[in-house]
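fyi for ur records
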Amino acid sequence: MLEGSILQQLEIAHRNSKRPIRFGVYYKNTLVALCHALEDHILNDVTSPLVITAFEQGKWYLQEAERYADIAKKSCQVAIMATPDTGWAEHPTSQLPNVNLVALDPTDPVSREWHLIILSPKYTAMVICQELSEADYGSSGLPGSDLERKFYGLWTFEPELVKETAALAIAHIKRYNPELAAQLTAYQDSIQPSLATPEQLSAVVSRVVDYLQTGQVNISVDTATRQQALDRNLVSNEIQAFLRMAQIMDAADITNPMAATEVVALAEIIGQLLDLPAWQIKRLRLAGLLHRIDPLQRVESVLTPGTSSRYQEEAPSCPLTCPLVPGAQVLRTMPRLRAVAQIITHQTEWWDGTGEPAGLTGDEIPLESRILALVADFQWRVNQKKSTQLSREEIFTQALEECRQQQSRRFDPKLIDTLTLLVMGLQQGIELPLMTPKVSAGMWLLDSRLDSESKTIVDLNQNLRTR
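which gave:
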């Protein structure tokens, strides 16, 4: 990480914190897709955000200058950092009253960084990366294709992290233009972004996924192996878009910001007790992390209208008459997540056939959907009782009994028996192995191999069976 860079300052600030930053490696085509998606969201928004960017070199800004003229019309202020190139300051976009150029010294470490920081009253977003050095590429050497250039950093919607990074960027700008830095600080102080609602984030997430998928289609490199690497990087970030949204939804739940993580842990243990194969548990894990995204209502693909009906027809276990859970509608645009979309869609089915959206009965309901419905309800009941004077054992007992009262009506009676075994272990002091999702590397969720985290579940399963 470059000494004195904004990325390094951010890493140092969080190095020993309870929430260390997880960085990832991104190919250039992934970053282009991410930035274009976020920029286009500005163009379709009405909130007049503050936008701070770093283009490395002025020539990259010149390639996007016309686009940034449109962005400036939708923004309260745009600050652009880059090493200057001939004509960059004279471009018409640079003359706009709310566009300010910061001519970086070529030796400035920020001249090796790629930033897009957006602060809006309704949402926040940022991409912040720096290009790998020649030594970082190792024995493979520098890439032959521009698309294969690699960058180290992160992207996120998290308000506090975006605000913190914006402050670091403004402090860096102050070295070159104190007056501009003061103006940017005033703009930042006037914008008080809060945790965006799922409805507010839905369009951002949908647009990011669409642009990543478009980037995937347009990839053209020399070999299949190199193209596969680029493809996996894009797919990983498609998954990350949903995971980041799920994290923000959890953070907005002041009663239990760990809800999704707890549901995942419960679902995985149930899966292990049922001896489900590793690939099915992986799928259940991802469904658990995303099970609350259904407020992504009425979101259509922003680039490919009509995709919802097409993907509905391609989901064989969902009848054509089955209306999609809105969030699952977006998930289904990703081939690798259609099975997860199905799990989420059918988690509201009832064992007796009176549920939604398709009125499926008994074993017609996908097993993972039945598991997810039960553990999510159990987790909610446990959390509601934590504020009472009940003991840990009493909380679990009462939550289990309330679920049992709905067996054969809402829940699969066989799964109630499995949940009973799990509760016995919890009452004897076994703790749920809560795991933080590796958001910076989304492909791990689609890997069928058991990893160390799955081994934790296996060990817990063995402990339960021997008690």
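Residues 224-252 form the longest helix (29 residues). thats all i got for now
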